[in-house]
Each structure stands twice: as structure tokens, then as C-alpha cells.
Amino acid sequence: MSKLPKDFLWGGATAANQTEGGVLEDGRGLSNIDVLPYGEDRPLVAKGLKKMLSWQDGYYYPAKEAIDMYHRYMEDIQLFAEMGFNVYRMSISWTRIFPNGDDEEPNEAGLAFYEKIFKELKKHKIEPLVTIAHFDVPIHLIQEYGGWRSRKLIDFYTRYAKTILNRYQGLVKYWITINEINVLLHQPFVGGGIVFEENENQEEVKYQAAHHQLVASALVTKIAHEIDPENQVGCMLAGGSHYPYSAHPEDYQEAIRRDRENYFFLDVQARGEYPNYALKKFEHDNLNIRMEDGDKDILSASPVDFVTFSYYCSRTVSGRPENMQTTTGNIIPSLKNEYLPSSEWGWQIDPLGLRNSLNQLYDRYQKPLFIVENGLGARDTVLSDGSIDDEYRIDYIREHIKAFKDAVAIDGVDLMGYTVWSAIDLVSASMGQMSKRYGFVHVDRDDQGNGTFERSKKKSFYWYRQVIASNGEELQSENLT
Ligand code: BG6
């Protein structure tokens, strides 16, 4: 008996800012990630604590060329088709469509570029799953309006979304409004184009920007349904539940608090209203969040159709974290969990945590779920015959597939699909590295920008092809062809 439904969506994910390059080609404008430098200043810029709104001498900017997908899209789609993808998650670069963000008219070259991609995907029977903004804010909107701290961004974003929803009607039906919306709280420049001014209340700025994004996301959900009732719109969370470090009630309380910090966004997007705990937080912390008449109605009128999330690791927290050993994780750090192994980058590997997260999200929202990112960032070695034996990546993905199959078959979670991060090697978001590789396809490019961009298939490429062909039943990695 197959554990997954026949129409389960299998594929891989990428994002424009980490793959395309060609950042000033064919009328495209600059956006926030284009100016995130490689190296030690990157986290400061990402957090909005160091202002860098243009390219500066002495820095290397990996997004400038990324993996040159702008010029190699057709070749890459061919590879995805060969693996048997029936879904491909990608994002549209906002500044290819509206170079400044507040332009009256869209850039036809940008619109035509993605139209070609969607037609090519259709030819291969691959369903696009499109993120409207994946860590993507036009630089001009940051300079002129301060990014998402300004309410004006709601209009610019909805104009952009409406343009692409209209243009790609019939070509795209699955949409995600904003990638990992909770990143706004941790990396406000990446998530919202926010650079802090001296002595301002950073919490207030972040939650104000969050309100604007939430309203914009609801408006776009409404517009998407009006343009085409076939459209399905999802929200997206940097997922991974929080475990209490011990059975101490304060540790458990902290785990609840930190889960809520994440669920806050989904609670609004999936249920259509601000949860009480958030409104109380604004009150207690003296956060003056400006909401306009009508915002409440906008939020409640258009909850999302499905809930998507990324999952790389779980997180462990304590109410008494002093002197405890910490480690990194996707965006949000964690305490060291003695029961879990870690990736080379310190992210704690926890397949059962994926099943736990799926259950939590399904219990909470009762909406179809979609795992839109999951994968292992690792250093790969190209052997003398050109092959890459990435059994560790296969192991990681295999265990996570087993976990979500259990969530579906045993727990009854409604899961639409799974897109591995990433379909192909790309620039890592956190540190701008190429050496932290996630793909099934290797790209010849290093951390300093050297390499030919040549693509080659890893062992995991052949393995994933077999997994997809068997709808997740055939997970062994011996005798692959
Ligand atoms: C998510 C992002 O945070 O995790 C991706 O949506 C990112 O853009 C991925 O690349 C993995 O993180 P990193 O920092 O290892 O690239």
C-alpha cells in the first residue's frame, strides 16, 4: 500500500536571489539581497544593524552572478524534468518586474522572462509553485520609504503581485505570498528591507512591518482568488518546533512562547485574526502598532488556502538558558540537544521533529500543508571521475521522507507535497557561501566567485529520481542507475 496520495507533489525548490544572477540585466533593479556581502559583515547587514544599500569596494557580493540561472534556466529545467519533478518551487524577482518597486508600469522584459520559464515547465508537466517575495525588497523602496516599515509597501507589493497574477493566469496556480515571514523578526533587512535608526524601538518597527506584510498577504490572497478561482495561495514559515530543554516548567513555558513567536504569523494568515497572546504582548511591551480601520476585515476575509513551511532542524530552548551551550540553526539559534547529531554547520538533524511539526501545524490550522524546504547543507567532494557521492544528503532526505510519510499514513496529516532545498546548488542565504551545498545538481562555483558554472549530477540526483518514480516507496540507494 502506498503511503502517499497518487497526486502527491514531488520536486525541489530555489529562490531567484540565490540562483539567477544577472542582477542588472534587461532592466532589472537592485534589491536587498543583491547588496548582502559575503563575509563577516553579512549578519550585521542582514539584521539591519549595518547600512549597506549599494555595492562597496572591498566586498564580494555572491548574488551578483549567483549560479547564473538567468542564462541557464532552460538547461536546469531539463535536469529537474529528468529527475521527474512534478512541482518546482521558485520565486520571481520583484525588481525584474518593477525595477524600483514604485514604478507605474512593469518591465516587459522581466515578465517575458518568467513567462518563458512557466511555458517550459508546462511542457515538462511540472507545476510551478511560485513565491512572490523570497527575501526580496527593491532597494529603492528601502531608500525612499524604509522598506516594509512603511504602509506604502502594501500598495507596491499588491501592484506587483496583481501584475504577475494576471500575466501568469493559466500558467501558475500555486502561490506563496512571502517566504519565511517570521524571518522579519530575526533578520529584518532580509525579511523586510529594514535598516534600524539609532535609538528606535526595534520591536515596534518589526511588528509594524509584520502588520503591513500580513495585510498585504491577505490582500494578495483575495486578488489571486478574484483573478482565478483556481489559484491556491499559501503562507510560509521558517519552521521547526521548540523543545523544552528539560521537564522544568519554565523550559516548557519558554518553548510555548517561542513557538508562538513563529505561529503568530500563521495564526493571522491561516485563521484570519490576531491571536490574543499577540495583542497582549503589544500592550505589555508598549508596542504601538498602527492598524487602520478595515485591516481587521481584510485579514479575516482572506485566510490562506494552505500552509507551507521550511524544516531543517528542531530547536531547543530553556527558561533559564544562562551558561548553556548553543548552536546554530536555520535563522534562529538553539540550545545544544544531546539527543541529536548536527550538520557541518551545527544545525541539529531531527527527522522525527518534522513529523512533530507537521502534526502541530495540522492540529492548529486544519489546512493542507506543504513542506517547501528541507535538505542538508554540506560540503561535497568532486571525485577524480567527476562523480559526487553525497550519501549523507541521501540519508538526511530519506529519514525526513520516512517521517512525513508516517505523518500522513499514521497521523492523518493532509500533506500536498515536498520540495527539497535545493533543486540545484545555490548561494547559501545565511553566509553567502557556495561551499554549503544543498542541491541534487552540482554547480562549479566557489565561495570567492571562481568556477565555470558547469552543472553535474550528484548521486542524490539518481536516488531522488527513483524516489519520485516510486511515489516515495523506493528509498534505498544501492544499485542506482
Ligand atoms: C531558508 C531560506 O531560510 O533556508 C532559504 O528560505 C535558505 O533561502 C535556506 O537558503 C537554507 O539556509 P542557508 O542559510 O543554509 O542557505
Concise structural overview:
The protein is an alpha/beta fold and 481 residues long. The protein is 38% helix and 13% strand.
Heterogens: 6-O-phosphono-beta-D-glucopyranose
CATH architecture: Alpha-Beta Barrel
For the biggest β-sheet, the strand order reads: 1-2-3-4-5-7-11-12
CATH topology title: TIM Barrel
Number of helices: 15
The biggest beta sheet, please? 8 strands, parallel, barrel
The radius of gyration is 21 Å
What would you call the structural class?
alpha/beta
Topology pattern, helix = H, strand = E: EHHHEHHEHHEHHEEHHHEEEEHEHEEEH
Overall pLDDT confidence: 97
N- to C-terminal distance: 25 Å
Strand content: 5-15%
- Count all strands and give the number: 14
Question: What is the CATH first-level class name?
Answer: Alpha Beta
Which parts are unreliable, with pLDDT below 50 for 5 consecutive residues or more?
none
